[in-house]
Task: inverse folding
């Protein structure tokens, strides 16, 4: 048989008001109810639970030890109910309960985090899901409308979609300080292709090779941090975002390779809205905040 609650949400709200206001008379003014109705509600709540929650001393009501525990739990419950009702209201007016953001791994996420910090106070409880994408995985996110907002390398933007320019990332070839190539003052791409390359796994369901995946010997990892750990051991080379490895290069842990006319590859990044016609108000607001972050730099 389904459980039937003995108490009501209104009773718990009245108890909270009596405690917060410091007494029945003050709570009655606050709630615009009669003092006797509040007395009756709390008395009935205690009777139904079989637990004494309040004791009156003079003109003030004080929580019992059991009341303190029950009050804390009731505040969590009423807050959850308020959040649930707010969520229903937001859905009713089109405010999305979840916003999905696909982000190309070479994008400096500090801009996104700054925009999210400003979005959080006005987010109306919308959940945020950040999905890391790599190479053609970004294209797939756009074509298949798997995210509300997509930050992708401009070459990955498929025809028919327009991207708002955000920033550029420089990709540089690096090795660990113990790698044999770290001692070479200069080398060409053909020589580089003879060495083991550490590559980041393409997140598309049907990944494709791109221009800088030239080496026949490859180890594939899930993210740049795994690649860096391997490089530190003196194994392989990898093209990595300059912003990510700046400190490691300055301290000599990693060494940038010098390749005439190819020591760095500049990759422009853009913000794409795959389904503009159905984009919710939360996603629109977050998009504007993100674009504003880049205008500030």
Result:
């Amino acid at each position: 048989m389904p459980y039937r609650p003995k108490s009501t949400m209104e009773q718990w709200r009245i108890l909270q008001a009596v405690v917060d206001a410091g007494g029945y008379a003050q709570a009655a003014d606050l709630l615009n109810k009669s003092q006797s109705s509040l007395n009756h509600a709390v008395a009935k709540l205690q009777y139904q639970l079989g637990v004494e929650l309040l004791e009156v001393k003079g003109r003030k009501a004080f929580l019992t030890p059991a009341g303190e525990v029950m009050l804390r739990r009731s505040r969590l419950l009423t807050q959850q109910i308020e959040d649930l009702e707010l969520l229903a209201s937001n859905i009713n007016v089109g405010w999305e309960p979840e916003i999905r953001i696909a982000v190309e791994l070479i994008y400096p996420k500090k801009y996104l985090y700054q925009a999210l910090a400003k979005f959080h106070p006005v987010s109306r409880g919308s959940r945020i899901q950040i999905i890391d994408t790599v190479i053609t995985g970004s294209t797939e996110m756009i074509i298949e409308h798997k995210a509300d907002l997509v930050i992708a390398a401009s070459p990955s933007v498929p025809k028919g979609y327009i991207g708002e320019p955000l920033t550029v990332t420089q990709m540089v070839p690096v090795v660990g300080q113990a790698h044999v190539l770290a001692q070479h003052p200069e080398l060409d791409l053909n020589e580089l292709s003879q060495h083991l390359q550490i590559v980041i796994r393409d997140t598309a369901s049907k990944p494709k090779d791109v221009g800088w995946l030239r080496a026949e010997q490859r180890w594939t990892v899930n993210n740049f941090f795994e690649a860096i750990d391997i490089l530190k051991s003196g194994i392989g080379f990898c093209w990595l975002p300059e912003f990510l490895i700046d400190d490691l290069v300055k301290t000599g842990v990693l060494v940038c390779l010098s390749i005439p006319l190819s020591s760095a590859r500049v990759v422009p990044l853009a913000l794409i809205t795959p389904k503009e016609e159905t984009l919710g108000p939360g996603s629109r607001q977050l998009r504007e905040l993100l674009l504003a972050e880049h205008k500030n730099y």
